[in-house]
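Pasting as-is:
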Amino acid sequence: MVKIDKAVVLAAGRGTRMRELTADLPKPMIEVRGKPVLRHIVEGLRDAGIRAILLIVGYRADTVRNFCGDGSRYNIAIQYATQTVQDGTGRVLNLARDFVKDTPFILSYGDILVDPANYRRIVDLPDEIEAIITVTRGEDVSKGGAVFLNDRMELIDLREKAQPGEVETSWYNAGLYAFRPSIFEFTAKLRPSPRGEYELTDAIRALAHSEKKVRALELTGEWADVRDPEILARLNR
């Protein structure tokens, strides 16, 4: 078992579905229950034992840097890398190679709210597992990643934004992962998807098909992808 103490957070996106709410703010800086989504994530990771975070910034990067600084106000070390081209979640991960070096790490999307207890469940990586993908039920799998598992909760397949009715699974990719550095072997080989983006989910599928074990962890408690004004309004109600 390895105890993970580094995390990478993808905080570069604008979030066009948020419309005017992200005209001056990057999506991870939108407030839910009195503080930015990004702060919920940083504090949850810190409380789970993460000691250093790499924030990958892009759109309105100065807003994130000014808010988080070097992390000292949150009692955690924060570094930054800049995504200059918005071409998907797969290629951007390569910006983290120098930060994680040869150690396992947590990856979180910057617009995901989870019950903080889940961070503590994912920082322990069993020796026989190459990666952990978190999943949740009850979401429309056409809005994100449809996850296919065997009866041992091991990943069989992963499809991004499948058409409604095209897939039969109730598991939805929850956007929080644990990886060993082997994931970089697979992100390096990515080709653009039909959407024209380099998809992290394609790299994870290739990792699972390489006879490495990728296990799914079902999240407990509240989970939300803060993707549009309607979800934001419900969270802040």
